[in-house]
Design brief:
Structural class: alpha/beta
Distance between the termini: 42 Å
Number of strands: 12
Radius of gyration: 21 Å
Shape: globular
Oligomer: single chain
CATH class of the largest domain: Alpha Beta
CATH architecture of the largest domain: 3-Layer(aba) Sandwich
Strand content: 15-25%
Largest sheet: 7 strands, mixed
Number of helices: 14
Helix content: 40-55%
Length: about 375
Amino acid sequence: MPENLRSLFLLDPEAIYLNHGSYGACPRPVFETYQQWQRELERQPLEFLDRRITHLMVEARIALAEMLNCAADEIVYFPNPTTAINMVARSLRLGSGDEILSTDHEYGAMDRTWRFICAKTGARYVHHPIPLPVETPEAFIETLWQGFNARTKVVFISHITSPTALTFPVQEICRRAREAGVLNIVDGAHTPGHIPLDLTALGADIYTGACHKWLCAPKGTAFLYTRREMQHLLEPLVVSWGWEANEPSASQYIDHHEWQGTRDPSAFLTVPAAIAFQHQHDWDLVRQRCHQLACQTRERIQALTDLPPICPEDDGWFNQMFAARLPEVDPDALQQRLLEEFHIEVIVRFWNDQPLIRVCFQGYNDTSDAEALIDALRILLPQMSL
């Protein structure tokens, strides 16, 4: 890995940034490409948005589809996974008594989306508990499937969870759901650029992922993948010129969902540059180094707190991001002191009444960042434990 990788990012050099998972960070060369697209748009808006954008978006979809191993007409760009899942959830024909099976590890915005839909339709959002620690993928799947019954119409699950940073065995879950004739939807916000993602092999009916997190594209860049057999289920969140299109493309899915009125598409067009950046900097090795750093740091936090891990180190339960138990503390107060006194940006939150710290390592981090976190926790935890 090049020694100057940290210098390729625009992050505040005074901050120790261990929270890549929340909003990502865009490398300088990728951000410059983003700004070039914005300038190109402003130079001749009509030419760009009326005559060029369709072809440019095709190129951006092709580059992303190649990385995801799917067809370019199976993905549509969205500003974020939350917007994509809102479109999906509002499209489904759910009724009274229908159930959406999920876990208690899901992202809060997604929980709110499904509760909103259920309040309107009479369906039920089943937050099936997955206790910690998780042990094996097989045990996880059997625990989740205890929540499945004849009323289950949708299985909705994170690929990599936000609060607990666990990588769930979604391929087998998707297989079981399809075998049962139930729609499966995967929230992969943290997956692209974080772990290898082959959507064809995965077998999800619907999958959303963020490009502005671990793929390091500009903010407001995500995608929605839908298998062709399921595309007819989805109605556009915004009805615009693609509905009853004057010049239909070969894909009604793209026509209905890509154009949502006037907006800046520059972030979407920058995704190929983000993919190229990671190829150029041997990101497989970067991910390996970050995973090793995560394993070492997690072990040191556990030694500091004398608390058990939430998952084994093997079986692929975590990668560049992990969560570790903390003693009884005020999470908000600890997070604030880490920032104000030690310039460390990291997430500390309650999950099911258990304080957890979620630590992210990206290519701009190194062992000195991990040392700073451990030193800070060694000072603060004895002072702040309740």
